Amino acid sequence: MAYQARAAVLREYGGEVSIETIEVDEPADNEVLVRTAACGVCHSDLHFQRGVMRHFPVPTVMGHEAAGVVEKVGKAVRGLQPGDHVVACNTIYCGTCDQCLNGRPHLCLDRMGPAARRPRGAPPRLQAKGEKLIPFTDLGGFSELMLLPERAVVKIDKDIPLDRAALIGCAVLTGVGAALNTAQIRPGQRVAVFGCGGIGASIIQGARIAGAREIFAVDIMDSKLEQARSFGATDVIDSSKTDPVAAIREKCGGVDYAFDAVGNTHLLCQCFSSLGPRGTAVLVGAIPAGEKVEIEARGFLGGEKSITGSLMGSNRFKLDVPYYLDLYRQGRLDLDSMISARRPLHELNEAFEDMEGGAALRTVITF
């Protein structure tokens, strides 16, 4: 039996997203069918739509920052049942490779495992008019229905509004996790965050939760800098008017951690230059494939500085998602203020325009 759902489909890089009726297959033994309640609009979606991330194929059902309600489960699924509220996450893991067994499931070497190995001639899991569709990052959240591996979702309590819960699946998991898991910021340390959109705001909140002494927020938009203060930034720097590296070094001599929340080679170099001795620059945003970073080598030796990446906040999402939602309940993690707009699915292209123009911190598509 196939299910029908409205979904946002991208058929060519750089083209507009079309809202189409698609067919969704029955869940296999280790899969769940989820009725989507909300899906956040992330810069990765925009990059993909603009043709920057061409390692993902088209035609594609877009979206990946989603939460919803379980509709049906495969016969081998344990711990989930219809009616459960869940958050989806694209760091799907096998549970048996070296990375998983060493506590790094976000770096899984066989992320889809047996679920990806379909019999020859089997019908597509998602299709429209007989044409196979690929779910973006194996989720496809801009659809009324998502067909997901059991290890792509985590059950959450039903008291959490699903539009807030959706943010945990990418922006918060990535940003808060970069601060708490990747950097492991300690109380009293100094932090700089370059780029104060949804990811940057989450890094700022993670740094505040970790007890950072100073948090420098760097952006070119006054509105985002003002929001950064509300999320915990102690200092804000308009980099269109002020050299952020000079301002940071004048104030404190250099930070312990500097985060590139955008994915920009120039910003990553600024992050590295703003570090104090033994500081670490953390790349959180996605720099387009093929771009190179040129760093003065003396900083590595003379100051023992380093650069590292953070993939989806170095998460163990089955543990992190419930933890972050507890922080939300306690009033320590602000999800409410991160949502700048809610739009229906047919306004996804307008949501992309808002994001590209800097008007939105996080738009959530609601179903």
UniProtKB/TrEMBL annotation:
Keywords annotated in UniProt: Metal-binding, NAD, Oxidoreductase, Zinc
A molecular function (GO) term: S-(hydroxymethyl)glutathione dehydrogenase [NAD(P)+] activity
Span of domain Enoyl reductase (ER): 14-365
Gene3D superfamilies from the UniProt entry: Medium-chain alcohol dehydrogenases, catalytic domain, NAD(P)-binding Rossmann-like Domain
GO CC annotations, alphabetized: cytosol
Cofactor requirements of the protein: Zn(2+)
GO biological process: formaldehyde catabolic process
Family annotation (InterPro entries): ADH-like_C, ADH-like_N, ADH_Zn_CS, ER, GroES-like_sf, NAD(P)-bd_dom_sf
UniProt cross-references to SMART domains, sorted A to Z: PKS_ER (SM00829)
Pfam families from the UniProt entry: ADH_N (PF08240), ADH_zinc_N (PF00107)
Family classification: Belongs to the zinc-containing alcohol dehydrogenase family.
PANTHER family named among the record's database cross-references: ALCOHOL DEHYDROGENASE, ALCOHOL DEHYDROGENASE CLASS-3
Name this protein carries in UniProt: Zn-dependent alcohol dehydrogenase
Native source species: Sphingobium indicum
